[in-house]
Specification:
Layout lengths: L2 H17 L3 H13 L3 H20 L9 E9 L8 H15 L25 E7 L4 E8 L1 H4 L3 E5 L4 H16 L7 E9 L1 H11 L11 H14 L15 E11 L4 E8 L4 E7 L5 E4 L6
Parallel strand pairs: 1-2, 5-6
Antiparallel strand pairs: 1-3, 3-8, 4-7, 5-7, 8-9
Helix pairs in contact: 1-4, 2-3
This protein binds iron/sulfur cluster.
Length: 293
Amino acid sequence: MNSRIIEDAAFNLIKTSAINLPQDVKQMLKKAYAEETSLVGKTQLKAILDNIELAEFNHVPLCQDTGTITFYVKAGSKVRNLDKVEEALVNATRKATREIPLRPNAVNPLNEKNSDDNTGRLMPIIHWELFHGTQLELTVVTKGGGSENASALAMLNPSNGIKELKKFVIDSIIRAGAKPCPPTILGIGVGGGADVAIEIAKKALLRPLDEMNPDPTVANLEREILDAANMTGIGPMGLGGKTTVLGVHFDYAYRHPASFPVAVAFSCWADRRASARISGGGDVKFIGRKESG
Ligand code: SF4
């Protein structure tokens, strides 16, 4: 596969993600605006919706914090030049920073030096998944620091199970308050080890908001946590109201009998993500984007 095609596709994904929110998020924000009963909350949601429209109209990023760039790569084992993909994603990140432009958000934690191009050691973040095939699927997430700072991880007592999990999630939402720019979307990862819980919590954020969990037991748990979260009164931008969380996405892995890891990943209202599929022949198809509505 031609690495130039991968670089161009990745650049376009970063640009789309930074400027246009996915349709499912916009619809959910419009629904929240229609249903919000707090006047202050409604005003905040209106400002968010106006902001989304202005960004689209002027082709500028949705937020001054253009986030950390994370790629999820699903690679067919028969894709040629797989070893060139990482370089293409780094080049796309540099170009996007220059041309969109994006805020340079990659800082060396030891000497505070900003690379000025959103790249550096382990940056952009790249997650790999291999499958049998000839296609490459790229998803980019541009996640703001405010929502990342609200991330929570706990190693709970297994004997307290799901009950303590619910308490930990709601406590995390209350502790986060206005910091992750609510209304938020929550990814909850349970099981595995600490690393797996965090990884699957973040990955759960990729699921569209209008997609129900196929497992009815898990769907019920998500609904229960969503309802409880929206009873906290934190509201849009933390200024009060009944819209604190737009959606809850749960995932799990089997765990050690003595461990019960729970991770909560937050996405702010600017839930920026975009995906594309590149065929073995180099055709690029952007996926998961409905243009109407
Ligand atoms: S948390 Fe999201 S909306 Fe808030 S400043 Fe950061 S990127 Fe922007």
